[in-house]
Amino acid sequence: MTQAKRNSRKAPVERYHHGDLKMALIQAADQILAEHGLEGFSLREAARRAGVSPAAPAHHFGSAAGLLSEVAILGFEELAKHLDVDPSAGTPTQRMRMQGVGYVRFALTYPGRFHLMFRHDLLSHDDAALQAAGDKTLMQLEQTIRAMHSLPSQQSLDTQARAELLAAWSMVHGFAHLALDGKLSQLQAATPSNGLLTDVLPKMLENRWPDA
Description:
This protein is an all-alpha fold.
């Protein structure tokens, strides 16, 4: 065997010992989802892109669900950034509308992650880090709803506030799916570039939650 072939065979092992293999696999999976969606994902392709053996993903994550859960955590972390609105930026109602636009902007920017994050059949149900990331993201919306209703953090959401939280989440989540699935194509054709985020969605949110 030539020296070049020996070095080639050793490369995945050396990357493992360098400690970057796990992140390389997560980045590879994220890239596959961004390019081809959930239908194009496979552990074998993730391993190929990371430059390791097909058995490496299972060694680090146990299963496809384990690896995809790590990508979903990245998604929730990025979504949290899109929901991060300065507390001084207008009234609580105005901030909630900004968060709604941020939610959809995230979905349109990271469609692969967005479709994955809520596919519980593809993720690890017992992943504490995934659960924490999802809860933290939802809490950002909840805190804004609390501010709208003047509810302290230690008090449970009342029926009205809980219904408002679900209504806000459902509206922007559904809007994001319609946009990603091309169901708004006729509307989008008559709307200026990026108009869904700058005109249509803000107006929908304002009609549902107008300024006092």
